[in-house]
Amino acid sequence: MKLSEKLRSVLESEEIKSFINPREVLEAFKSLRETIGVLEKSLDPATLAEIQEEIGDETYF
User: Fewer beta carbons within 10 angstroms: which end of the chain, N or C?
Assistant: First the structure.
């Protein structure tokens, strides 16, 4: 299961909905995904590979 699917599953639970606004969280992750895309284009390949290794593949939800 992708990280985005796990996140969506958690955000859709009634317990979580009483504490946070799922739409706001999903929008924040969308913004984060866009930021990662910009960073991918601006970093040199070696630095990008190092970051990807450090944080793992699941970051790219």
Answer: N
